Structure formats: C-alpha cells, structure tokens
Amino acid sequence: MERHEYYMGLAIGEAKKAEAIGEVPIGCVIVKDDQVIATGYNHRETNRQATAHAELLAIEQACEKLGNWRLEGCELYVTLEPCPMCAGAIMLSRIEHVIFGAVDPKGGCCGTLMNLVQDERFNHVSRLTSGILEKECGELLTAFFRELRAKKKAKKRAMGCNNLDETV
After folding, report:
1. Active-site annotation holder among 55, 75, 134, 166
2. Which domains does the chain carry?
C-alpha cells in the first residue's frame, strides 16, 4: 500500500468517528517524520462551534504535541478538500504538504474554488496532492448526505401525517 493511501485510510477512520456521532464525516491526520502526531474529525454539531472542523482540531493538537505553532515538516491528510478557514489555518501553521481525498465543489480552497495554500502572495506555500482514495472519501460523504435527506423527508412526511390527524 502506498504511503499516502495508508495515512488517508487513517483519516477515513477519523471521518467514520464523526459519522458515528452524527457529524459530517470528515477526518484528518497530521504526520511528521512518518509518525501520526495528531488526529481530528468534525465536531461542529457536537460542540456547536462553526470552527470545530477536523483540520483545525488536528492542527491545534499537533501544535500542542510539538510545543510550537509552526508545523514545519508536517503533512496534513484530510478526506475532503479544505475550506477557506482550514486552508488559512494550514498556511498560517506552515504545514509543508496537504493531501486530500475528495474535492469540495462548494467550498474547496485547495484548487477547486481557489488555491489559498499555494498562493505565492502569502508568506508560506504548501505542496498539494489531491485525489488520494478519492472514491472512498467521496462515498462516505455521499452516503451521509443521502441518509440525512431521507431522514428529513421521512420527518416531514410524519409531521404531515400528524397534522392531518390533528385536524380530523
């Protein structure tokens, strides 16, 4: 198994932890010198915090572990292309290499809508690798949102039935 696929597999494991608690299944792993130093998965709903993205939680953990805000020499693996907030944090923390699985057509800022981590106007530029286990990463998200839509639809139907019962 290729090295990138191994670490992305760990990030997928983190994403599944998010899914298990009802969060959007996005997971992240930060690696330095071939050692995992931090992991994270979405906690936005659980923590009721807009900033509780997998990447930010993992970056915070990595900074604590290394005792430094600079994460030079680190690689960040994430199942979904980072959003503008996470791409900014990646740049500001000096992460050397960003590796992601699925592209994010609605919020991706590592090549899709824009490419913040490689914009040479900033004081740090990261290497970028995309499409690692893309199908597996994308299927996690697709299945999650399909199930979420089905639950919402069923709830609306149930509410509609209850409203009919109340009026009869």
Report:
1. 55
2. 1-159 (3.40.140.10)
